[in-house]
Amino acid sequence: MSFSSQGFSSDIVRALTECHYEKLTPIQQQAIPQIRRGNDILAHAQTGTGKTAAFSLPIIQQIIDKPKSLTRGSVRGLVLAPTRELADQIANNIKSFSKYTNISVVAVYGGAKMSSQERKLQAGVDILVATPGRLNEHLELGNVNLTNLESLVFDEADRMLDMGFINAIRTIMAGVSTHPQTMMFSATSSSQMNALAQEYLRKPQRIIVNAENSTASTVAHVVYPVEEERKRELLSELIGKKNWKQVLVFVNYKETANDVVNELKLDGINAVLCHGDKKQSARRRALEEFKTGKARVLVATDVAARGLDIQGLPHVVNYDMPFLAEDYVHRIGRTGRAGQQGHAVSFVSRKEELTLVQVEKLIQHRIRRVPLEGYEVDSRDALLSKMHSKPAFKNRQSRTNNANDQSSAESRLRVMQALKKRAKK
Question: What distance in Å separates the CA atoms of residue 208 and residue 55, rounded to the nearest whole number?
Fold first, then answer.
């Protein structure tokens, strides 16, 4: 099925052709007709399935079909994203899709100067892409007016909840006096996200491209059992012996990221950093070096890596297992995209076996374990048998946030760490 068959203008089709968009992906085939009909959408699809085009192309076409004069600070279409990287990526994609139109696209997010963003917002904007926190700042200063909003998209809505943005979202929605067509996209599902959908969507069309909380069939999963203190050594050895050329490595802490990069450089492996202490310009440079092959490894924390779009990425390594099982799905969604083969590698220490069980339960798949000579750890079965008897394991849940949770993402991480410590006692 081609994009021209969806009734898009010749200007949009021309831009899509230049972007090498030829056939609609499954999420686009299902979502675009529903959005064109004006329906609200609740969609579950993996990263890299073409979600941005699915929601942005109908919005662009609607603005073309119904031209309106913009007033100071006004916005016709709003896309909310959890991180600056994702917001920047979405805005760049929309600019590419609308390059032959007069549609204005602006991205606002933390880490960039408020004054430059304010200047771009003054005349009004057709499509605004924003992180919730920075958008609220502009709303408080009167730089943005959402009273006449026509289209609203929550991209990676599950992640926004995980990061504690529910109150920021409610503040934003309080400034919307219209009933915009609302679309919610996520890779995973939870009761909290369903509650959010029920609050803001009107008779939504539910679209499920993959089974909820599933991983792409093009990704091969493998686990390497390893003691915590041997992980850096193992990473260098695998990259070297297996000759991995492009590897995205996820860690849970900025300090760990710094240590891993230093270790890799000592072993002659060019690596770059992407975490919250780095300025946006430095993170962009690191990503560009990684994409162009100047750097072989990109080491990133979860927050910094959201929205990274790396074509043909072959390897994702979970150096640290994520605190939430759902984040495993998000992390490995960076590889195996657009039908290409990918490899998801996880290092699992003794204390992370519980997380691995949660991940396997979530994705309904037992991950292949590969014990390596020289990196042996104690029996997994013996450890799990002991863990199953612990109350911390029996009462363990995946997501702990809810629609009324006012705690930050950091506090939830501390809770998960405390549970792990209790399980060791």
Answer: 15
Q: How far apart, in whole angstroms, are the C-alpha atoms of residue 372 and residue 242?
A: 13
Helix (H, G, I), strand (E, B) or coil at 125: strand
Contact of 346 with 356, CB cutoff 8 Å: yes
Determine how β-strand 125-130 pairs with β-strand 75-80: parallel
In a domain, 365, yes or no: yes
Residue-range definition of the domain harbouring residue 289: 219-391+415-424
Residue 344, in any domain of the structure: yes
Rounded to the nearest 5°, which phi and psi values hold at 250? -100, 135
E-assigned strands of 159-204?
Answer: 181-186
Query: Which pLDDT band, with edges at 50, 70 and 90, does 133 fall under?
Result: very high
- Note the pTM of the prediction, 2 decimals: 0.64
Between 11 and 278, whose confidence is greater? 11
Contact by Cβ (8 Å): 230, 354:
no
157 domain-assigned? yes
**Of the residues 144, 174, 208, which one is the last residue of a structural domain?**
208
CA distance linking residue 328 with residue 74, whole number of Å: 38
In contact, 349 and 226? CB cutoff 8 Å: yes
> 172 and 276 share a domain?
no
Domain tally for the chain?
A: 2
**CA–CA gap between residue 19 and residue 1 (Å, rounded):** 17
Kindly state whether residues 357 and 294 are assigned to the same domain.
yes
In a shared domain, residues 203 and 253: no
Q: Which of 175, 192, 193 is CA-nearest to residue 184?
A: 193
158 and 33, same structural domain? yes
Smallest CA-to-CA distance from 274 within 296, 259, 258 is with: 258
**Same domain membership, residue 28 and residue 163:** yes
Phi, psi of 270 (to 5 degrees): -70, 120
298 and 155 belong to one structural domain: no
Please check whether residue 407 lies inside any domain of the structure: no
The CATH number that applies at residue 233 is 3.40.50.300
- Which whole-number Å values give the CA distances from 235 to 146, 243, 244, in the listed order? 48, 12, 11
Whether 362 and 246 map to the same domain: the answer is yes
> What is the mean pLDDT of the segment spanning 240-268?
92
pLDDT in tens, 318-368: 999 998 888 888 888 777 665 567 899 999 998 999 899 999 988 888 999
**Which secondary-structure segment (H or E) carries 260?**
helix 254-266
Q: Is 60 exposed, middle or buried (0-12, 13-18, 19+ CB in 10 A)?
A: buried
Strand ranges (E), 119-180: 125-130, 151-155
Cα R_g (the chain), whole angstroms: 22
